[in-house]
Amino acid sequence: MAQIRHALNTTRADDFAAWYQDVISSAEMAEESGVRGCMVIRPWGYGIWERMQRLLDDRIKATGHSNAYFPIFIPLSNFEREAEHVEGFAKEMAVVTHHRLIAGKDGGLVPDPEAKLEEPLVVRPTSETIIGDAMARWVQSWRDLPLKLNQWANVVRWEMRTRMFLRTSEFLWQEGHTAHADEAEAKDHTLTMLEVYRAFADEDLALAVIPGEKPENERFPGAVETWSIEAMMQDGKALQAGTSHYLGTNFAEASGIKYQNKDGGESLCHTTSWGVSTRMVGGVIMTHGDDDGLRLPPKIAPQQVVILPMLRDKPDDEALIDYCEALRATLASQHVLGEPLRVLLDTRPGKAAAKRWDYVRKGAPIIIEVGGRDMENGVVSLLRRDRLWNEENGKPAFQTPTREIAGQTVPDILADMQSSLLTEAQERREANITRGVTDFAEVEKFFSAARYPGWVEVQWSKPTGAELEEVVERLKALKLTMRNVPIGAAPVDGECIFTGKPATERVLLAKAY
Amino acid sequence: MAQIRHALNTTRADDFAAWYQDVISSAEMAEESGVRGCMVIRPWGYGIWERMQRLLDDRIKATGHSNAYFPIFIPLSNFEREAEHVEGFAKEMAVVTHHRLIAGKDGGLVPDPEAKLEEPLVVRPTSETIIGDAMARWVQSWRDLPLKLNQWANVVRWEMRTRMFLRTSEFLWQEGHTAHADEAEAKDHTLTMLEVYRAFADEDLALAVIPGEKPENERFPGAVETWSIEAMMQDGKALQAGTSHYLGTNFAEASGIKYQNKDGGESLCHTTSWGVSTRMVGGVIMTHGDDDGLRLPPKIAPQQVVILPMLRDKPDDEALIDYCEALRATLASQHVLGEPLRVLLDTRPGKAAAKRWDYVRKGAPIIIEVGGRDMENGVVSLLRRDRLWNEENGKPAFQTPTREIAGQTVPDILADMQSSLLTEAQERREANITRGVTDFAEVEKFFSAARYPGWVEVQWSKPTGAELEEVVERLKALKLTMRNVPIGAAPVDGECIFTGKPATERVLLAKAY
């Protein structure tokens, strides 16, 4: 086995956090903006988000939701109506207090004291309360239900310690909000959307997530039930990749979302909300990235195939570009994974080999290089991003199909890559979940010994109140949290690892982002 | 000719402003949010905006731009670097001063004095300065140019008098920002994007706009040249529907956007910016709406065809739904105007006739009703939104093709509607532009006499400084503004209507939104 010289300066094994930043900057996905806690999402990173948006939006619409748009500013008084909700968000809200600037004493600009708002406005951290107001206006009768809305928007939660994509003061997301006639339908819808997220995460992003219910202490502020999908990162930590909340009648009471029921009486609606954000991009990086940079499931790759002619600033460049253009046109006319294939012919100035490594770091699924000799032989040099290296000679594992065969087989390669990235993530996840731990001392040992320990599944009695707080504190001492109670886990059999009482369900423990 | 009973309570002739609000509320497009100056865009209104986004985004990408995302917050100091720019926006900026709320003395929430920002942040009114910062980091060499970016985002300009879609404190838009090596290329690109806007406005929205250059006094703060597309509303007023700015090196100097040129020296970039917003939705309403509500060019209709079975809560409903579903499936499998046909089969509770009028007011291009007798006869009842009435009997002008023929001809009807709405707008515009007015007294008479006078094209000498100010004041007294200097206007021939000097170009005068 030959030594491979990887494309990044940092490796996952050396320093996972530094590697993460390296992937983001060398793939030109995002960067610090200079504005506290806010990032700039660069075209390649935003292109991935656009692909996610398109795929998830289709799934959300297919389940009967319509998109709408609500104000970015929320009056303080709206928040005050739901006590737990405001308690949960008050510490991290950006507050608008003035609507004009004037020249200050030193010539710089200052907020105009004459233009102070009577009631400060909060930049939305989430929109339950403002959308609740609209629902109260729109829902009159049972005929108006269910009301199924979704919004794509920016939100702001002031964060002191930020990390690109994973935790930023401003982030992009979708937030779904629905109102239903009764508890059963609303709870059912909460799970329908959790399943939409699971399918999106697995089938589109190849994340191999575990759906389940959050324990009480991890609920969304104001929710009755919170469900999540949890993804395992390559360092063994968990990433909460999406949440779906059953809100009971809490927000309906706060905003007055009532309807005339079939008996002519008045009932409160039961509402749900659910969201997925740009954080998911961080999950894709930490699930699929390797020591050469990003790898992307083809469904979310801004470009699935990049063709690089090896131009030499000579007259025969033109013939080479024509040769590549024919392949580009063939590929662009094909469909893969249900959509037109996305292919880029990159003829910008610069050496093909340097560009190759740029696209490797960006995670373009297939890179095709074409030099003069390739053209003479009627072939192309094709590199699969998920099988980059020939381990025997330590060189990039180029295949050299004829141009015609490349034109035919590229869609199959992309489809194969989409499913093999999911299989890889599933296998890694299963290999790194330890089940059947019954003694808390073992948990302590497990998480203190291994560097990337993965997750542990334990049985518990679902304690509440002070008993639950004690559990949370014990886990906190190990920097652990309960991730969720997986749907479809094996039946319980034994005692609660925390309380010694008969166990009622299984719960996943992990370090988390 | 029979009396027609229109679907709205207000008519354009009675009160154009009230009619506009009536269209918006009865089509359920948008409403006041309760948050000062901010509107809620409801699903039907947002669906139109989503269609616009998709079509314009395709055009922007086809001209080589990539989408990216920049922070919503801009530090004050960024603005201070470009004097004209800050002067233009300081009076209408929402200012964030705190990042946390705490309980105040009366128990309500107040901004936490301990969490006051060192430097206040402005909610972006436009992003030249923050994107300029990024460009300065990304552009190093001539090889990095041109840099062509676009952003879809919300922006805030604090407005005292708001009108839905046309003027709101928060609005949605796209803002394109590009950096170029020299003046010629940047100016050329400014016009390329103006042409993209013109094509989008005419071919997709059927607005029949006039592209041209804004006079100096109407330029974007900090721009060297501002170009616009101007659309004529049915009340004869002008709506600026999109602008494209050549910014010279003003923002490049402010942000330090420099590059190493081919000679090895350092040069400043020349930048452009251009934007189109949700204001365009208002333009669609005031161009195409009629006394029955909204009419929509099929390309931007969220649903192009709505099928309404006349359900009677009886067992034979099922056969009727099957009959309609077959038509829906036939239509959904077809393409029209370059995209899959959008068709909705609406089986929600409620009377078909009441729903018909809801969709008329919403501007669904084709409404198909199907009753039991239609089914027996193998036909459907088809209503074209742009030819709603049989003027002879005052009734809706239903056609009754067989279901098979309807399945075949609907795409043709939609394509015809798309082009006939444009023709209608073009003809109205041309009929309402008065050319060849050479005496300012005539202009005065014209705009004071007619209720919906349209526009007047005059010749002028393009004065500057005090002379221009005087022109602006004279027009202001008549509530008029100069809209733009149309591209491709007839050659000048005579004197400036304002100064008496030899005219150099033609300029459009109008009342405007």
TrEMBL record, chains A, B:
Belongs to the class-II aminoacyl-tRNA synthetase family. ProS type 3 subfamily. It holds the Pfam family tRNA-synt_2b. Keywords: Aminoacyl-tRNA synthetase, ATP-binding, Cytoplasm, Ligase, Nucleotide-binding, Protein biosynthesis. It catalyses: tRNA(Pro) + L-proline + ATP = L-prolyl-tRNA(Pro) + AMP + diphosphate. Its EC number is 6.1.1.15. It is an enzyme of class 6 (ligase). It comes from Qipengyuania nanhaisediminis. Residues 28-297 form the Aminoacyl-transfer RNA synthetases class-II family profile domain. This is Proline--tRNA ligase. One of its GO terms (cellular component) is aminoacyl-tRNA synthetase multienzyme complex. The lineage of its organism: Bacteria, Pseudomonadati, Pseudomonadota, Alphaproteobacteria, Sphingomonadales. One of its GO terms (molecular function) is ATP binding. Coiled coil: none annotated. It is found in: Cytoplasm.
